[in-house]
Design brief:
Blueprint: E1 10-16, E2 19-21, E3 30-31, E4 41-44, E5 57-61, E6 67-72, E7 115-120, E8 138-140, E9 145-146, E10 150-151, E11 154-155, E12 168-169, E13 176-177, E14 191-195, E15 200-202, E16 221-226, E17 229-237, E18 242-243, E19 253-254
Length: 264
């Protein structure tokens, strides 16, 4: 894949009584984990969901297969009023009523957009939930940052008028989404991004049923199959609830992810 390095590593460890038996495949780099708890079979491989991200994002699996390193330029691959006017992705959205946070706020300007973080290759769903905070909480398939439902520690509704078609804006930090990003997920089942706890988030609909899931937890998560997994896994959805944001130019406003995280 152009400008993207994805290292796929399968880790398989099977514990017998007093003996660990190991096997390898000639076409796949295999690392074995010796310190496996009794009865556990550990299989870790990067999902094909990672292939859906733009070339702005790079994923690298750690040598021991326990972590995934995430790096992104933070530059989205879609139009916005927040690009500079000489960029071919610039879109004049003032006719729709979008008011930029600051006239000199442009994608790639100021502090830049690049983000990097590390997630567990297998999210830990056994601990306490963790609240989201004001800052990047994940990366979208477009390459840009995901934020929660607050703006500067206050209500998002206060800044709703500055959000573009994709529910994103910039100023003065990175360009980021607060709402459902319609260019790549608009009331559908599409993959939206990866959050800081290592859990994927999808659109409002569920691939396993084709409709809105009715078993979501407080974070918008549940266990089911996806278009990229053969077995049912825990993942988030954008919750199908309208957010009151009177100044938003592209109603209805649907919050992307409020939290809390479930996968720490």
């Amino acid at each position: 894949m152009k400008n993207k390095f994805i290292k796929r590593t399968a880790l398989i460890a099977i514990l017998f009584t007093g003996l660990v038996s190991c096997s390898s495949e000639s076409e796949t780099e295999v690392d074995l984990i010796d310190d496996v708890t009794d009865g556990d079979t550990v299989v870790v491989e990067l999902s094909s969901a990672f292939d859906q991200f733009s070339d702005a994002v790079t994923f690298t699996l750690s040598d021991d297969g326990t972590e995934v390193y995430v790096e992104s330029t933070g530059l989205p691959n879609h139009t916005s009023i927040y690009w500079s006017t000489d960029n071919n992705l610039y879109l004049d959205e003032t006719t729709e009523g979008v008011r930029k946070t600051q006239e000199d706020s442009v994608i790639g300007g100021g502090g830049g957009e690049a983000v990097s973080f590390t997630v567990d290759a297998t999210p830990n769903l056994t601990g306490a939930t963790v609240a989201t905070d004001f800052d990047t909480i994940g990366i979208a398939v477009s390459g840009a940052s995901i934020f929660n439902d607050q703006e500067g520690g206050g209500a998002l509704s206060d800044a709703a008028g500055s959000l573009d078609y994709n529910g994103g804006h910039k100023g003065p930090g990175v360009y980021h989404y607060h709402l459902e990003p319609r260019s790549f997920s608009n009331d559908d089942e599409n993959l939206v991004g990866l959050l800081y706890d290592g859990v994927f988030i999808y659109g409002r609909k569920c691939n396993s049923t084709g409709g809105y899931p009715d078993d979501l937890d407080v974070s918008g998560g549940h266990v089911s199959t996806t278009q990229y997994e053969d077995e049912a896994i825990y993942h988030y959805h954008i919750i199908n609830e309208e957010y009151t944001a009177d100044g938003y130019a592209y109603q209805p406003a649907i919050v992307l992810f409020a939290g809390p995280f479930q996968g720490y």
